[in-house]
Amino acid sequence: TWTMANVVEEQVERIRAQVGEGRALCALSGGVDSAVAAALVQRAIGDRLTCVYVDHGLMREGETEQIERDFVAVTGVDLRVVDAREQFLTALAGLADPEQKRKTIGREFIRVFEQAALDVVGDAKEHGESVDFLVQGTLYPDVVESGGGTGTANIKSHHNVGGLPEDLQFTLVEPLRTLFKDEVREVGLQLGLPESMVWRQPFPGPGLGIRIVGEVTRERLDVLRRADAIVRAELTAAGLDREIWQCPVVLLADVRSVGVQGDGRTYGHPVVLRPVSSEDAMTADWTRLPYDLLARVSTRITNEVPEVNRVVLDVTSKPPGTIEWE
Ligand code: XMP
């Protein structure tokens, strides 16, 4: 019978047959697909896989740690975390335009990853080995859709790990090519990945960088990260993680409004909650979250994040709104 345990066994065999005694490289993004692909390949070839994770400083609270700690604990994978936080902040300084921010993040990402790939290959060479394989978390729908651009590509510059140095020649290893997302999640669970990783909702490559309307700074990232963590914790506590597609939290960093807290006037920033329901992110509806949940989130954010004095709900479907604000 076609069970996910069979799929794991079968793919492990295939990967071993393909890679033989060779070495492989895999870019982890924090997302489900790359994590499951890496875990499968690790099971097949052990420490002949090296994973690279670029920490651009635009991740949400706990995400980098989850990769560094939990993912490694479960898989035992050889992981290189590249701390590129300064580099990204420097590159983003002074930029407020959404497309400029997206392009800058994409460009820096490729730069950092290219260098990391060269380093891994260089280290292998020193030991008289080569890295010939690149692992990618391509899913069946990606295979079907490849070639045809999605409409959104014209609206926003989507960023994913794409380019590699031309002098690096890799053979692709794509162990998820026959699977749909729900199957990938099951494979992840089979491999022992934490539920929080396997059920992670979509999160854009440019991360929190496109959820701060205005310039991205360390302080603003810190404010947004704290507000976002509260929203995620409350959605999880309410058991809504699998019901909603995703819930971006957006910091309107250039907007301030007057408020009152205790005896004092405040002049803080609004955050926007953007809960959406969707099948494929091409269209979406705003999710009717329970009022008591919204109230709890609002109270907690304004109490626990002093820079924020207003919580606002986005009730726009897609179209005409997009899911992310930038
Ligand atoms: P929009 O904002 O276009 O988002 O309605 C649709 C879906 O795509 C995600 N998204 C991205 N994912 N790189 C990604 O990997 C990106 O640059 C990017 N921009 C948006 C968004 O979170 C939503 O799920």
Automatic annotation (TrEMBL):
This is GMP synthase [glutamine-hydrolyzing]. It catalyses: XMP + L-glutamine + ATP + H2O = GMP + L-glutamate + AMP + diphosphate + 2 H(+). The chain holds residues 195 to 520 of 520 of the full protein. Homodimer. Pathway: Purine metabolism; GMP biosynthesis; GMP from XMP (L-Gln route): step 1/1. Residues 2-200 form the GMPS ATP-PPase domain. Signal peptide: none annotated. GO terms for molecular function: ATP binding; GMP synthase activity. Keywords: ATP-binding, Glutamine amidotransferase, GMP biosynthesis, Ligase, Nucleotide-binding, Purine biosynthesis. One of its GO terms (cellular component) is cytosol. It is an enzyme of class 6 (ligase). Its EC number is 6.3.5.2.
